[in-house]
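Consider the following input, taken from an annotated entry for Holin (Microtetraspora malaysiensis).
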Amino acid sequence: MIKVGSSAKAIVSAFSAGTAALVTAMGDGAIETGEWVTVALVVLGALGITYVVPNATRQR
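Applying the prediction step yields:
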């Protein structure tokens, strides 16, 4: 079963990274094919990396 915390942090991370890449790509006012590929790779990378890395455990 997937924990909601793990998938939620991956979705938020992917959205944030994708938005940042998209804003950067819009710097010249147009998005070309290569820039769309970059945005897609950033989103997929953020999803994969963030989902795999476990949350830190609390130290008491």
